[in-house]
Design a protein that fits this description.
- The complex is a heterodimer of chains A (about 110) and B (about 110).
- With about 110 residues, chain A is an all-beta fold.
- In chain A, about 0% of the residues lie in helices and about 60% in strands.
- In chain A, the strands form two sheets. In chain A, strands 2, 4, 5, 6, 9, 10 and 11 form a seven-stranded mixed β-sheet that branches.
- Chain A is globular.
- The termini of chain A are far apart.
- Chain B is mostly beta strands and about 110 residues long.
- Helix content of chain B is about 0%, strand content about 55%.
- The termini of chain B are far apart.
- In chain B, about 35% of the residues are buried.
- Classes of the chains: A mainly beta (about 110), B mainly beta (about 110).
- The interface of A and B includes residues 40, 50 and 104 of A.
Chain lengths: ~110, ~110
């Protein structure tokens, strides 16, 4: 499981409330990623990090922010949750194998915004 | 940017038969093509990958092929078993920091 945990695993919240999801890894990987998974859309990248305090946007970054203050933790924040952000969120780490982007996923967080 | 198309979206095969899932990609610089399997309620798991310097790779009942000229790659599962039922995702990556996923194929193994 590449030493990745996510918390919470399930969350129900109301529209307009802030939500923070946490990804924690124990293997000191430099790269970490946040994806959302929705039926018919596969896995879409929200944001990623390539080091402490170094982050960049993915294809669906609107409405999300991230922070990485230490190597092991990558936080995803929904400043004001909307129903369109109801989804399953997966964190991933990258194991750099000969320069190739091997990614391994955490167990996921199911978020429901009412 | 990279775009990955995956077909079919749903596939049903009789147990013991073979299953083939096909993907195309758009960026000729892509050099790494992983495949993930996701069982219901679980995380996607990397099951096999192929790199651009290789045309084919096998691991027991699973094989992947890559045609760089045509920009397509495929997953082949032989002698399918009930535990092969899952959603399968292809992906492509070049030497930047991201990988792009296909939309997935739901594979049903029929008894």
């Amino acid at each position: 499981d590449a030493g990745i945990t996510q918390s919470p695993r399930h969350k129900v919240t109301e529209t307009g409330t802030p939500v923070t999801l946490r990804c924690h890894q124990t293997e000191n990987h430099r790269y970490m990623y946040w994806y959302r998974q929705d039926p018919g859309h596969g896995l879409r990248l929200i944001h990623y990090s390539y080091g402490v305090k170094d982050t960049d946007k993915g294809e669906v970054s609107d409405g999300y922010s991230v922070s990485r203050s230490k190597t092991e933790d990558f936080l995803l924040t929904l400043e004001s949750a909307t129903s369109s952000q109801t989804s399953v969120y997966f964190c991933a780490i990258r194991r750099t194998s000969g320069g190739y982007n091997e990614q391994f996923f955490g167990p996921g967080t199911r978020l429901t915004v009412l | 940017g990279e775009n990955v198309e995956q077909h079919p979206s749903t596939l049903s095969v009789q147990e013991g038969d073979s299953a083939v899932i096909k993907c195309t990609y758009s960026d000729s610089a892509s050099n790494y093509f992983p495949w993930y399997k996701q069982e219901l309620g679980k995380r996607p798991q990397l099951i096999i990958d192929i790199r651009s310097n290789v045309g084919e790779k096998k691991d027991q009942r699973i094989a992947v092929t890559l045609n760089k000229t045509a920009k397509h790659f495929s997953l082949h599962i032989t002698e399918t078993q009930p535990e092969d039922s899952a959603v399968y995702f292809c992906a492509a990556s070049n030497r930047d920091d991201k990988i792009i996923f296909g939309k997935g194929t739901r594979l049903h193994i029929l008894p």
